[in-house]
């Protein structure tokens, strides 16, 4: 793959990762409630979910999803339901944060689950990969070139949200965020519920 083409791919993946949405809200909430390790766990498993969609795209299965609206609709509804559930949990968490009352291992498992499911349940990711990433895939591409595309998407997504978790968990930043946890949970909850409604409305 030419360097110029790869740079274009990396730029598109970076813009997709950095755009505000449920993924950013998720990493923020897990970092706030469970600390740096929980935020980073959510970031890593979110990247794995992104990698799965990228893998499906380079295999050509993205086109299958695109041409089977029923499959896409079911994925959309499941994703919206999960986003709504996360939003309600955030609204009910209050100032303490629902995650803080559990042990560290439980926090990590919840963060891992949420990161993966939010990635897999976000129909925007399907559209992103089908519409944009598939433009970089050609029938004559080698297996190595296809893997470069997948790894680029995974590393950029995981790297960005890991940096977010590290920045938010800084010793000067985290106490400031935790002091405002009630409002952050409210904003996160409203954002997630709004995104769920938006997904259902198409």
UniProtKB/TrEMBL annotation:
Entry's localization field: Cell membrane
One Pfam family recorded for the sequence: LysE
Bilayer topology annotation: Multi-pass membrane protein
Entry GO CC: plasma membrane
Transmembrane segments: 41-62, 74-95, 115-136, 148-171, 183-201
Swiss-Prot/TrEMBL keywords: Cell membrane, Membrane, Transmembrane, Transmembrane helix
GO molecular function: amino acid transmembrane transporter activity
The protein, known as: Lysine transporter LysE
Keyword Kinase included in the entry's annotation: no
């Amino acid at each position: 793959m030419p360097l110029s083409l790869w740079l274009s791919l990396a730029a598109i993946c970076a813009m997709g990762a950095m755009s505000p949405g449920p993924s950013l809200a998720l990493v923020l909430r897990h970092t706030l409630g469970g600390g740096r390790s929980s935020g980073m766990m959510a970031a890593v498993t979110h990247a794995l979910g992104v990698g799965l969609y990228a893998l499906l795209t380079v295999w050509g299965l993205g086109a299958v999803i695109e041409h089977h609206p029923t499959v896409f609709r079911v994925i959309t509804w499941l994703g919206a339901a999960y986003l709504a559930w996360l939003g309600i949990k955030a609204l009910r968490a209050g100032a303490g944060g629902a995650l803080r009352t559990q042990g560290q291992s439980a926090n990590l498992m919840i963060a891992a689950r949420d990161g993966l499911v939010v990635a897999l349940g976000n129909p925007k990711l399907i559209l992103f990969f089908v519409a944009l990433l598939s433009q970089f895939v050609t029938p004559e591409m080698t297996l190595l070139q296809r893997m470069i595309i997948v790894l680029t998407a995974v590393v950029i997504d995981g790297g960005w949200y890991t940096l977010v978790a590290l920045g938010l968990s800084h010793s000067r930043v985290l106490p400031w965020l935790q002091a405002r946890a009630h409002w952050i949970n409210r904003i996160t909850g409203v954002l997630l519920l709004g995104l769920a409604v938006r997904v259902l409305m198409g």
